């Protein structure tokens, strides 16, 4: 059974940093693009960032460029999202995604 488990969320002040992790189990995803999405209360789920299978190519939503960094460690079957200079509008549940699998999400709350 495939599982994606996110961790690393929490409460942080504006300007702070968090590092999210997403560990996959049940199969390896080293051949697939992986991504992060987020959903704020009352809003649609939106794209944050994506990374190709070997980490050689990344793409970011405009709001994430320059502040967030997506990376992966295929040996550990783990996806990361480093988030810096966090803003209150970054408050959301963050989800990792690969193929048609989603994690349960991790809450990120940024206080002003």
């Amino acid at each position: 059974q495939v599982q994606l488990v996110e961790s690393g969320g929490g409460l942080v002040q504006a300007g702070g940093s968090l590092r999210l992790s997403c560990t996959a189990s049940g199969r390896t995803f080293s051949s697939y693009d992986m991504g992060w999405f987020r959903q704020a209360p009352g809003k649609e789920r939106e794209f944050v960032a994506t990374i190709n299978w070997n980490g050689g190519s990344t793409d970011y939503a405009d709001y994430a460029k320059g502040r967030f960094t997506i990376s992966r460690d295929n040996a550990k079957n783990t996806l990361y999202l480093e988030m810096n200079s966090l803003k209150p509008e970054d408050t959301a549940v963050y989800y990792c995604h690969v193929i048609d699998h989603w994690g349960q999400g991790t809450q990120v709350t940024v206080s002003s």
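The CA atoms of residues 55 and 72 lie 6 Å apart. The two ends are 40 Å apart (CA to CA).
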